[in-house]
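WARN no homologs supplied; continuing
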Amino acid sequence: LGFVNACGDLARSQRQTASTAAPSDRQLAALAPVPLFHATGCNCILHPVSIVGGKLVLMHHWDPAEALRLIETETITNFTGVPTMSRELLAHPNWATTDTSSIISMGGGGAALQPDLVHRIDQGLRNGRPGTGYGLTETSGVATMATNEYYVARPGSVGPVMPCMDAKLVDPETKVELASDATGELALRGPNVLKGYLNHSDALSDGWFYTGDIARMDDDGWLYIVDRAKDVVIRGGENVHCGEVEIAIYELNAVAEAAVFGVPDERLGEEVAVALYLNADSELSETQLLDHLTGRLAQFKHPSHVWFTDEPLPRNANGKFLKSTLRTQFLERTVGLYQG
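OK structure emitted
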């Protein structure tokens, strides 16, 4: 019930925003570029649109040119997808000639929207603003929400937790609660959180769900997801958060897609690797990349292996990059790198 109420609040706020940016009789129209069997498609798009009697436009598979056509012809007001989808829309040659004035919210979740993308969305929309949310299937798809000028002012955040929820940061190993200004594993509690997994009744402790995401919280209660606990490269005892490296890399206009991951290293245990797919007619060398990172990231966070691919990075059905596949492909290409 708490989640339904939260969705209702979100949908009503979107409808109110639409009334100020477009004719009062405009129907909320959402484009669903992700599958409805995923929590984002079902709980974060289908349910809110249904609650307010909006229009849902489905895509059989992701294609930025087709998405732009649908945005114009179906007068789409809300676009929710993974970050790479928004990047591809903004970078597509048809963006400049497509009428996107109906859009009041663009962004989504599934992965972090890098700060540069937040600003690009804000600058690219005539009547809309960027928006994001954070959640998991275990939290019914949504746990935080960030929109409008508040989000633009904090582009690295995923917003405050939903009103029906509680959040705390804990030590990833001991699960002991940390001070509010610390960085630790995010734990969530609320009526939208699962009771447990099949045949695993001890999945929650005292009602708290431990997300496996590393986060910090500012003085206003806005959460910043640092990385997945399992998406941390441990290089010679130093933790390298892949998301932090990706944010710095995406500042380069030449980069269309970037995925940072760990690969085995005989001396350090793991090393940092990155797979890059560049925008058309763009050039970037490994030296230029590392020069860009100098001064932005500590030296031990710099990728030791830079792989420029000739085709887009592999993704799952929801549009997320398949880092395990990239890691396997990279190791197969690199003779002598894998030691075990």
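Residues 1-24, 336-340 have pLDDT under 50 and may be disordered.
OK
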